[in-house]
Inverse folding.
């Protein structure tokens, strides 16, 4: 396996190098970097032109100038990383530094979310092949596939941001809308869960009443002004999560797994209050450590309670722990909403349409987190919609093909329950070809991000690229490409690692 | 003469005496969504090209055919009705005024350009770009895929590394660079260059088809018959791979139109004085609250064209590789006839 | 009086396709006792596999089953889904045909066996592993403790099938349903697996339901037999009764069509006077090597093989998988380059095969391929496929070409109107005939047939072989007939050559090789072939055991 990975890595590096060279030459020849100076009316025009030529080595032809730039890049190995200067004389690495964080956040969250959602939906539609649910999802994916990302972004900006901000001024959901949401719920949930018509009707009725009831209560309690989950709902959610995870992971018949998950939920409940008391000390690093700690605690609980067969119980408990931790964290974020909403920087219009964070906002990790959320939500949604369609279709096709394989028939012939056949035998084989799609898709996400950033006026890498290209500022464009190319390379490497982990035919010979 | 029962006699009934091509066509014509999409797309194309006429070429070699619409896309007119669309599709019993098209069915911008003319012109450009990219990318992709898949070994390695190289650069990025370079030389040239970077997916698929078809015995049989490599590629393997090619070309085309409009949106595609649907959306995104129609119509056209192409592609995919279309209900089972034993 | 494990009455299976129910199995009745083996035989489309899958309701959703299947008195058709699931793998276990695809490639074989155990019994992982290793020992898998952690792709075909069997017997099933368990295996491996199954049957006292098309396997293993055709039960009874005194016409036809080793007629020797007659195909120390490709090392498929074929004679080339016989066949006509040695066809030396050198050879040779599904270009009407050699060698075109194609169709006894039909409209047997017609187009001196009947039903195979024999007798071309089936080679060949791992192991006249094989591999090979005659097969089996 190590050989496979190293070989892929080496090849990728060579390919990246060649791609960088091509990009450099294309960009350099795409226009005249002195255009704005040539047409200017400044009196020291000649001097300015000469200065810029000296600054950027414009005398050297591009196919050689590349190596000057490359020298600066390779300086990273000796501690002198230099991406050159941009057309205004500033260091490219400075400009990139801040822009990089925002854009990468957007791209990574969008990609991971698209994969998760796409795979889940794709698999459910494959299992419910040819049902109404399947058809509607297929149609919606088709639709999303045909939407231009910038159009979607503008629509989101208009209706969700401005519309939602307007809604928040008087946060009461109109009755008609409650009815609509409840009706949608009544149709979607039976579709996902499936079963005979009688069961579906029952599920639909339950979904309808729960959704309508929930929305009514939200209205009555003014939840949108002061959102939160609270211990009671948190406990209910925790229990529901425990059951759902157990059902999927080991089947509800495995009492040990179910009990371990419930114990984990109880631990979470106990930790709720202390956590909230000390929440203001949380920084991003501590948050990460806490997340890892929750998984470890869950794993240990599962191990202790696992009896003879520890592994599946530990796994179930760990997943439940993580999700329960998520519920607690979500509650804390929600508590930060009111102060955020009322702060002078926001003044009642939280969903931003410009920029990637509220300038000058100070606050705890939680408030800043909410800020990030309100800024990241819509662009991520825009990128998500496009990628999601591809993953849904692909995973659906993949699973359908797998279900026709001989070893699935063998699994059934052994008397394994359907859940095991799908989750254990089909799922892993379905994931294998998907890893190759990730590589392809990532490049598309980067392109989409550039366009989306433009719509939301983020000063991220997208705008650096666009402005840089406009002025034929080769160093800036190349800085952008180097970063995105390297991230894409790392992502592909990750996909390759996952691929070789999943497929023993690569790992072992 | 010995008559033997054909194993799949059941399916043969409908396709007796038909070649593969005819069978595919028959299946395609049964796919209602695809046929509807095809008609809609043809209608859009006809509409776009005939309404404001064709106007291509630079000043020295111009081809100008006038259309039946009274305004030109660059023409500046008096602003009527504050730029609101003059089209009213609701009959009089609903909103009082009768149905009418009016002078500016898609409205006007603040300068006075006619919305309809601009959208039609933009549609022309986008459609033309879509077809050109489709053609160029398909030609390159099929060539590279076929050569790599057929000859294998070092040719395959080199070509695949080259393909990886192109994949590494996101199409939007390289497209923007190209648009910066040649965008002002016209949409056609831009499309050709964009096609040079859009072939990678198709190349991989064609290569896969060739790798597997190459191992089929009829290729060896053709060699025994004395066929040269060229004949094998064109007469034997390629016709069997054509299904994959056609289906993926349509997908490529729908992606192409989204690419072009995206590039025009960020300013690196089709630029002034010409218009593109993407450019129109960019121009008017800030005007959304005041003049939403300038934003909606171009967008709707992009979505419609892309959606139609996608449906056609889906219909083609089903025609080449049919699968069961819907679930079998218990009603189906009850009313089905029984073949006599 | 052994009790009946399985009672099947009036079993009917229908499939729903586009609004019509198509019957796959009609009114099937049979009983099976503990410790006995019932073989269900039939050709493709007979419904035997469908019946086997129907017993535990393992059919797709567009199937409907009626009738009753009593397992120890309980009707499986009346049970709920979860109850049937408890039976599957536990009281009723399956063995499938292709072990490479029937085992999940991402889990170790040990895990898959343990999984079966833990699904049916309340047993912890450590105990399950111990039992699994026990089972792997029982099926005689080498180094069972290490094999537990191996993945399917790391084992050979025979080993995989053993692992599959271990998985199936893991819960001590009362009924073992084996669907073509040895069809994908080499003949020597098949013999071992059949021995294994016989041994297990006595140890576990399971009843075995054997689904197969191979009458030799039936004669070796079964106590009772059930013949199916087009979904119907044609004849059933004890093995000796049906084999020796078949009552139904179809059964008689079927048994007559099965090639039986050692029963072929006397062969007239073909003159091999090397003074006046030159061999059509001459190979001297020919080796074929697949070059190093990336990281897969070079592989020598054929090593220093020398043989000759004279006009009018048929040389049967036999071997198991990996013997190199297919590679040799393709190299003989220049479809693969040879890496060493001298190769000449009709006096033309093609050792250094360049396209130019091969052209005259192509005009003198023809090739019949194995797989009817892929040997014809699906986009071309068969007339064009047949006529292509004529067209490309510029022998004829236009109307004269059409005439020649029609004559060729006559030769292979297909109607002339077929020349406008497409391959998908023809049956497997018809497509193979087209293959012969194409190979004969340029009246070759050398015909290579690479397993031409392996994919055909037994009755279709019999007619095909008759046709080939008759054409060869008339046209007197030299023929290299490649096959893994010794019984078929017995019928056709004048001389036989045996290959193993790329080397030519033994060569001689047909009767010489079959009755007095000298090389131990040849002896093992011949003794492993099951003959469709229960009494004789018993004797052969005992002789083979003695050899071991």
């Amino acid at each position: 396996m190590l050989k496979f990975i190293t070989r892929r890595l080496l090849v990728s590096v060579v390919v990246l190098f060649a791609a960088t060279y091509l990009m450099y030459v294309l960009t350099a020849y795409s226009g005249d970097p002195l255009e704005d100076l040539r047409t200017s009316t400044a009196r020291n025009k000649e001097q300015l032109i000469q200065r810029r030529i000296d600054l950027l080595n414009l005398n050297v032809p591009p196919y050689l100038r590349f190596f000057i730039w490359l020298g600066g890049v390779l300086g990273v190995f000796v501690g002198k990383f230099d991406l050159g200067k941009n057309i205004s004389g500033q260091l490219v690495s400075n400009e990139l530094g801040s822009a990089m964080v925002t854009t990468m956040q957007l791209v990574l969250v969008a990609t991971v979310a698209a994969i998760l959602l796409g795979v889940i939906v794709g698999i459910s539609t494959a299992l419910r092949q040819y049902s109404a649910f399947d058809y509607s999802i297929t149609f919606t994916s088709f639709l999303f596939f045909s939407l231009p990302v910038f159009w979607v972004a503008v629509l989101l900006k208009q209706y969700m941001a401005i519309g939602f901000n307007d809604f928040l001024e008087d946060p009461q959901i109109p009755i008609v809308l409650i009815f609509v949401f409840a009706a949608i719920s009544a149709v979607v949930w039976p579709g996902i869960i499936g079963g005979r018509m009688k069961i579906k009707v029952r599920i639909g009725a339950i979904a309808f009443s729960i959704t309508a009831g929930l929305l009514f209560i939200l209205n009555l309690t003014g939840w949108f002004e002061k959102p939160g989950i609270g211990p009671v709902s948190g406990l209910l959610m925790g229990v529901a999560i425990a059951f759902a995870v157990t059902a999927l992971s080991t089947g509800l018949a495995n009492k040990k797994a179910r009990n371990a998950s419930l114990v984990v939920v109880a631990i979470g409940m106990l930790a709720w209050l202390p956590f909230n008391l000390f929440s203001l000390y949380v920084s991003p690093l501590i948050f990460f450590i806490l997340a890892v700690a929750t998984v470890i605690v869950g794993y240990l609980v599962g191990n202790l309670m696992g009896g003879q067969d520890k592994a599946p119980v530990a796994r179930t408990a760990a997943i439940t722990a993580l999700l329960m931790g998520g519920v607690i964290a979500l509650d804390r974020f929600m508590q930060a909403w009111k102060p955020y909403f009322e702060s002078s920087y926001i003044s009642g219009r939280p969903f931003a349409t410009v920029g990637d964070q509220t300038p000058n906002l100070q606050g705890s990790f939680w408030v800043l987190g909410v800020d990030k959320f309100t800024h990241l939500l819509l662009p991520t949604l825009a990128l998500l919609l496009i990628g999601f369609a591809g993953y849904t279709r692909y995973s659906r096709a993949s699973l359908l093909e797998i279900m026709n394989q001989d070893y699935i028939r063998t699994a059934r012939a052994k008397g394994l329950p359907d859940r095991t056949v799908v989750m254990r035998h089909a799922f892993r084989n379905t994931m294998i070809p998907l890893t190759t799609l990730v590589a392809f898709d990532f490049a598309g996400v980067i392109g989409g991000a550039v366009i989306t950033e433009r719509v939301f006026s983020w000063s991220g890498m997208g705008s650096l690229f666009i402005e840089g290209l406009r002025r034929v500022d080769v160093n800036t464009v190349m800085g952008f490409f180097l970063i995105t190319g390297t991230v894409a390379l790392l992502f592909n490497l990750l996909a390759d690692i996952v691929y070789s982990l999943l497929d023993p035919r690569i790992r072992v010979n | 003469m010995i008559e033997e029962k054909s194993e799949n006699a059941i399916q043969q009934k409908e396709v007796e005496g038909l070649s593969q091509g005819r069978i595919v066509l028959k299946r395609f014509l049964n796919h209602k969504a695809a046929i509807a999409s095809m008609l809609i797309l043809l209608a859009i194309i006809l509409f776009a090209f005939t309404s404001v006429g064709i106007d291509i070429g630079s000043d020295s070699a111009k081809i100008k055919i006038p259309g039946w619409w009274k305004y030109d896309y660059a023409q500046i007119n008096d602003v009527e009705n504050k730029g609101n669309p003059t089209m009213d599709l609701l009959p009089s019993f609903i909103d009082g005024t009768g149905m009418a098209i009016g002078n500016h069915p898609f409205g006007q911008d603040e300068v006075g350009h006619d919305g309809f003319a601009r959208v039609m012109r933009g549609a022309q450009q986008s459609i033309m770009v879509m077809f050109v990219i489709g053609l160029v990318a398909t030609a390159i992709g099929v060539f590279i895929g076929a050569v790599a898949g057929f000859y294998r070994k070092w040719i395959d390695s080199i070509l695949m590394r080259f393909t990886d190289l192109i994949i590494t650069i996101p199409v939007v990025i390289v497209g923007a660079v190209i648009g910066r370079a040649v965008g002002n030389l016209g949409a056609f040239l831009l499309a050709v260059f964009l096609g040079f970077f859009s072939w990678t997916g198709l190349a991989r698929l064609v290569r896969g088809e060739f790798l597997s078809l190459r191992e089929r015995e009829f290729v060896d049989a053709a060699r025994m018959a004395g066929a040269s490599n060229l004949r094998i590629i064109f007469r034997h393997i390629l016709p069997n791979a054509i299904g994959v090619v056609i289906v993926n070309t349509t997908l490529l085309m729908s992606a192409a139109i989204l690419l072009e409009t995206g590039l025009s949106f960020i300013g690196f595609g089709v630029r002034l004085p010409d218009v593109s649907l993407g450019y129109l959306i960019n121009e008017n995104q800030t005007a959304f609250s005041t003049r939403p129609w300038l934003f909606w119509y171009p967008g709707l056209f992009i979505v419609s064209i892309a959606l139609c192409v996608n449906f056609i592609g889906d219909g083609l995919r089903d025609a080449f590789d049919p699968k069961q279309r819907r679930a079998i209900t218990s009603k189906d089972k009850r009313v089905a006839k029984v073949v006599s034993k | 009086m052994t009790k009946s494990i399985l009672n099947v009455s009036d079993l009917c299976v229908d499939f729903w396709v586009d609004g019509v129910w198509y019957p796959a199995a009609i009114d099937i009745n049979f009983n099976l006792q503990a410790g006995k083996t019932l073989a269900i035989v039939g050709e493709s489309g007979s419904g035997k596999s469908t019946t086997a899958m129907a017993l535990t309701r393992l059919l797709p959703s567009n199937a409907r089953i009626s009738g009753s299947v009593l397992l120890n008195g309980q009707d499986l058709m009346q049970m709920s889904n979860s109850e049937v699931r408890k039976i599957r793998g536990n009281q009723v276990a399956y063995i499938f045909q292709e072990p490479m695809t029937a085992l999940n490639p991402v889990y170790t074989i040990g895990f898959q066996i343990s999984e079966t155990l833990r699904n049916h019994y309340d047993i912890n992982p450590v105990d399950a592993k111990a039992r699994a290793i026990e089972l792997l020992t029982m099926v005689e898998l080498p180094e069972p403790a290490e094999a537990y952690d191996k993945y399917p792709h790391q084992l050979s075909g025979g080993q995989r099938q053993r692992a599959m069997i271990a998985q199936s017997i893991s819960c001590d099933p009362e009924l073992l349903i084996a669907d073509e368990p040895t069809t994908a295996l080499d003949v020597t491996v098949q013999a071992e697996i059949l021995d294994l199954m016989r041994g297990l049957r006595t140890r576990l006292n399971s009843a075995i339901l054997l689904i197969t098309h191979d009458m030799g396997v039936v004669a070796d293993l079964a106590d009772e037999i059930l013949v199916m055709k087009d979904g119907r039960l044609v004849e059933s009874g004890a093995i000796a009764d049906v084999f020796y005194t078949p009552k139904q016409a179809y059964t008689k036809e079927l048994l007559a069509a099965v090639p039986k080793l050692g029963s072929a007629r006397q062969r007239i020797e073909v003159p091999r006077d090397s003074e006046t007659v030159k061999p059509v195909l001459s190979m001297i120390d020919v080796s074929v090597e697949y070059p190093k490709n990336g990281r897969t090392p070079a592989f020598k498929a054929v090593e220093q093989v020398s043989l000759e074929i004279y006009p009018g004679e048929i040389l049967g080339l036999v071997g198991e998988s990996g013997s190199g016989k297919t590679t040799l066949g393709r190299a003989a006509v220049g479809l693969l380059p040879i890496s060493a040695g001298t190769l000449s066809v009709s006096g033309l030396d093609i050792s250094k095969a360049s396209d130019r050198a091969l052209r005259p050879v192509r005009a003198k040779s023809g090739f019949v391929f194995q797989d009817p599904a892929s040997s014809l270009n699906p986009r071309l009407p068969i007339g064009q496929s047949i006529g292509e050699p004529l067209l490309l060698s510029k022998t004829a075109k236009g109307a004269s070409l059409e005439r020649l194609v029609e004559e060729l169709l006559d030769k292979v006894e297909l109607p002339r109107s077929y020349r406008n039909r497409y391959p998908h409209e023809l049956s497997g047997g018809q497509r193979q005939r087209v293959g012969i017609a194409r190979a004969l187009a340029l009246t070759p001196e050398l015909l290579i047939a690479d397993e031409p009947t392996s994919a055909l039903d037994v009755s279709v195979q019999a007619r095909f072989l008759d046709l080939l024999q008759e054409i060869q007798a008339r046209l007197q071309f030299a023929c290299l007939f490649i096959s893994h089936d010794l019984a078929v080679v017995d019928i056709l060949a004048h001389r036989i050559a045996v290959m193993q791992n790329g080397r030519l192991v033994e060569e001689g006249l047909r009767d010489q090789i079959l009755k007095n094989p000298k090389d131990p591999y040849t002896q093992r090979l011949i003794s492993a072939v099951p003959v469709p005659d229960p009494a004789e097969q018993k004797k052969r089996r005992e002789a083979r055991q003695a050899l071991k």
In short: Chain A has 20 helices and no strands. The first helix of chain A runs from residue 2 to 29.
